[in-house]
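Quick one: co-fold with glycinamide ribonucleotide.
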Amino acid sequence: MTNFKLGILASNHGSNLQAIIDACDSGIIQAEVSIVISNNSKSMALKRSNKKNIPSFHISNHTHPDPHLQDIAINKTLKDHNVNLVILAGYMKKLGPLVLKHYKRKIINIHPSLLPKYGGKGMYGMLVHREVIKSKEKITGISIHIVEEEYDSGPIIDQIKIPIDKNENAESLSKKISQIEHDFYVKTIGEIITGQIDLNSYYN
Ligand code: GAR
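Sure, here it is.
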């Protein structure tokens, strides 16, 4: 058992969440997923975490219509579970000011493009891949960045380039990226835990 505790927020499928849970279980990363939060009560992400008996919470506009109270609830839930690093894994909502302040430089996100390209409001999941294909890009990729107030902003801590095949469409690209994302996110999280990546160093 390790002392490093991860809090993961996910909205839908939760395949990155699963990869992180598996990496903790197998010891690839020395940490435990101490809590999962989803804004979607029916998400696969919550099914996955419940199956592993990880404390799991649905916090959303339905449970907390007031954004301030929602911010307080997410912050309290993370704190109550002694979370050291907050990981957004396909979480499609903005975090509130309280969580951003309390976990300053301790929140990371994965995004399926070479940020700053194809990032920002309304750019997530399949929508990103559709735009990349529409723009006839030859290369795309994955970015992992520190979370700040705006969508997909904050220093990029890791990036990987992925070539786009001639006959690629948004669906095939999404599958290809999703497979690479899992190992890439796990590797980067591991490097944060071991101190190879220092999130504070991006602000010096
Ligand atoms: C992932 O591809 C992730 O990069 C993307 O959503 C997908 C979630 O998949 N995130 C964003 O677009 C964030 N702006 P998952 O639920 O299977 O982990």
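If it helps, The radius of gyration is 16 Å.
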